[in-house]
Amino acid sequence: MVNAFCERFRYNILPPKFLHGNTWSTSILLLPERGKTQPQRTLVEQFQSFSSYFFHILIQLFREHFLSAVSNLGVRLPVERIVRAARATSAVRFVVVDGAQAFCHVPVHLDEGCCDLYLAGCHKWLGACHPLGIAVLGRRESRAFIEAAAAVLVRRGVLDDPLLRFSYQLEAGLLDGTTETVGLAPLFSCQGAATDALGKGPPARAALPCRVRNAAATADLALASGWCPLLPPPESRTGILLLQAERARTRQAGADALRSAFYSRGVALTAYEAGRIRLSMPRRPWRPGEAEHLCRALRAAA
């Protein structure tokens, strides 16, 4: 049924394993087929107008899984509108938004109460380098429940994160004297990156259009360099660009070989099987020589 929906609007579904690697979460990602025209209506409008029955199925799928504000392949979902549509059709008890690729990348509207919990990390678009997961309470009504549940899980060792346990013990005044050695470096690097983000450069709302323009310019370079851009509809685009190699030989090469081919030419990126690569765009315009350098690397690795 979901495949029928995607065929109706000329979209492909990529399998969860491809989307998330070895992680346990699953998601749906809609990408346009190569060479097909882009639908003019937004994703939510397509969901609602196709069929209330299929829309109900999709809402059920979203209810059972995390909503990714931005997928790891760069597709931005209209999370707020999807949640509102879901609540209008059925009872939604708890909403968790995966903001790992959205935090400090695209505008986030948590003040609208669209989710109960917003999960993100500091080592991606914030640029803190050291991994540090964060969770933001999205609705006042859920705060007591989340805090109580987290406290229980920490005490039982289900949330087995040394830094989380240590910070919880400090806040609650429950130091037990047996806590293992805890690395505090992620806290310091996060503080420094947050200070830089607040004091230097444009905020995410202003930086996103520049990232999207950089992605569009890079897509044009890729077309002339043996790569096919896999672009979502305009309203769903972000600073992440997904490309696929045109040549069969390159598609047959493994992800490690493809990643190494670019790395040896001074370009760091994420590579997947079947000749797909993922590029993250800078928040400022390309500097002289940067686009040319990337174009040479694309041609050499194609």
Report on the architecture of this protein.
With 302 residues, the chain is an alpha+beta fold. It has helices spanning 2-8, 16-20, 43-50, 52-64, 79-89, 140-156, 162-172, 185-199, 204-223, 248-252, 255-263, 290-301, and strands at 11-13, 30-32, 67-68, 96-98, 117-121, 133-137, 227-229, 240-245, 270-272, 276-280. The model is unreliable at 1-41 and 46-55 (pLDDT under 50).
Number of DSSP strand runs: 10
Please, how many helices?
12
Could you give the distance between the termini?
Answer: 37 Å
Structural class: alpha+beta
* Strand order in the largest sheet: 3-4-5-6
Percent helix: 40-55%
Low-pLDDT parts are 1-41, 46-55
Give the amount of beta strand, in percent: 5-15%
Compose a concise summary of this entry.
With 302 residues, the chain is α+β, with helices and mostly antiparallel strands. The chain has 12 helices and 10 strands.
Key attributes of the depicted protein:
globular, disordered N terminus, 44% helix, four-stranded mixed β-sheet, alpha+beta, four-stranded antiparallel β-sheet, 302 residues
